[in-house]
Amino acid sequence: MDHTDMESWTGGSTLAASASIQEGDSINTVPSLTRHVAHQADEAQLDDAVWNVLLTSTCRDDFRTYLRQFQAGKYRLAAIERAITLDDNPNDDDAHYPDVISLLRSEASSGNPSAQIHIGKALSEGIGVDCDQGAGERWYRLAISQGETRAKINLSTSILAAQHTETKERIAEALQFAQEAADSGDQEGLIVLAIEKLRGNTVTCDIPGAVELLQAALDAGWGRAGLVLARIFMQDQLVGSNPAFADECARRGLAAGCAEAAFQLGIFAERNAMDATTMAVAKHWYELGAAALEVNSMRQLGLLYLRGEHVSKDGALGVMWLKRAAALGDVTAMRDLGITYYHGVDVVPNGTVAFAWFSRALAAGDKRSAENLGDCFKLGIGTSPDREAAIHHYELAAREGSVSAQRALGIALLMSEPPLRDPVRAARWLQLACLQRDGRAMAILGKMLEVGDGVPIDLGQAINWYRASAEADDAVGQESLGACYLRGTGVEFDPAWAAHWLGLATRNGRKHAPFLLGSMFHHGLGVERNLGEAAKWFRLAAQRGDPDAQLELGRILVAGGAEADFTEAEKWLSEALQAGLDDAQPLLDKLHDHLQPSDSSSRPPSAESKGAVIRQIRPQPGSEFAVEPSE
């Protein structure tokens, strides 16, 4: 790789003071910052030759591969535009990149050190060719023998990236390469050394020493040192948060030519943006970075335009910047494009395009996109519905720690038809999500414990999970807990608590909760019987699509005797019948025959019938799980 991955350590926990090399064995960690003129192969000439090979290609992957290979190539913008243009008309059978690999091999074999670095990188990272790290390392070493500093950086970072499986001797050699690169005036070598001091894995953890190194490098005009310092001083666990100093370092890094520092300044500004004026500052930094083809700035600028938060919303511009970032290999931008087309975020919804972007993101290593693909397979968006494929993709994301994917997997396993249905396995995944306080997972696990689906019946535990879910403001948990108080399941019958939780569930959009509130008024459960109030709640539930409410509202309207009520009664009873409630048919028959049914709903229920009603009131079977699992 050409650059050290900063995100791999800036988001981590406190760095441990452990080392695989003792302090006495470590390399010199105070490099000379004098810039040396080192031998440089004609990179531009090689870039021209590669571009000439690709010029007539109509294969989109050729240009994406070029962008991975030549991260400082002068044809990057042209390659981005070609990749985007060919996205809509791919011709992957016309791949020219094998010819590029042949060119690089030929040039490398003839002694071109720049070509040796590029073929080493291609083999080490599997860029346009099958990955072969051993062969890649041999080419790097050949370039090193010709004095190529870039080869030392690439080989050093490659070895250190696999430090947990490398020998002490190879790690020492990697650090030596980084030291030699730094001594020769290459800022990437110093960055590698500083980060290893911060991590404390290969050398003794020395945060002050790392900061001193980076500050000296920044003073000498090495822009990436400013970027790393900015990230360090935004983290409390490293040196104590100092946002003002972090901002200063990022500005100095940008002034010294580090385009990624513009992205960091944009992030700083966006975190504090309260209105259009302050958000404009963030937008300004992202635009600077995007103009320099800095991928993170492109992605963030695209999201700003799509969200329209304190800036003018512009779906076309948003998609353009996301596509440019995606062409540069940014998997988050690929996933964001999928979400944009899936939900129609200021663009026309397009399930096929969304599915393609999610698939591309997953193929590029973004496991989070597996959850989005699970949704596509479950709902048949952009592809044919495939429950088994949905479960497979949910599990990919669930194993990466996604709580929403763990919940979605549990739901899919619970709601599928045999042989895919597996409530025992569903319970395990839901329990994992519950441990992370996922409100919906807690409600579903509570229901499984209440009815004994995949787990033994345990009403006490069911109530505990319902309560935890309800207190986390999950509407399903609130509805289920309220229903338990109304039925006296696992708790004492308590209409006050029933009304409290059912009221919250209704406010949060559940359809069955207002039916249960209406039932309290219909049957006088803890309140005075009031058919008008019952009809109000039934109507709300019916409008939300609850079949029980549609049936009961139809009964009340028919019993009312007014001609106008018959029309509405017919509407609701027909919908209840269509939903599978056969009790609606006799009432519809009477309506159609212009018969008046006896007004049984106006007579107060007996104490015995009240008890029967309490026992019968329950959430619709499966309704707790009829929810979208993912955002």
What does the model show?
This protein is mainly alpha-helical. Helix content is 65%, strand content 0%. It contains 33 helices and no strands. The chain has helices spanning 7-10, 43-54, 60-69, 76-87, 97-109, 113-125, 133-144, 149-161, 168-183, 187-199, 207-219, 223-232, 243-255, 260-271, 276-291, 295-307, 315-327, 331-343, 351-363, 368-379, 387-398, 403-415, 423-435, 439-451, 459-471, 475-487, 495-507, 512-523, 531-543, 547-560, 563-578, 584-592, 607-616. Helix 7 packs antiparallel against helix 8 (149-161) and helix 19 (351-363) packs antiparallel against helix 20 (368-379). The model is unreliable at 1-41 and 618-631 (pLDDT under 50).
Give me the oligomer status: single chain
Q: Could you say which overall geometry the principal axes of the C-alpha atoms support?
A: elongated
What distance lies between the first and last C-alpha atoms, to the nearest angstrom? 34 Å
Largest sheet: none
Q: What's the count of strands?
A: 0
Number of helices: 33
Task: Give the helix level as a range of percent.
Answer: 55-70%
Q: What percent of residues are in strands?
A: under 5%
In terms of structural class, how would the helical and strand content be classed?
A: mainly alpha
Q: What is the average of the pLDDT values?
A: 87
Low-confidence stretches: 1-41, 618-631
* Spatial extent as radius of gyration: 32 Å
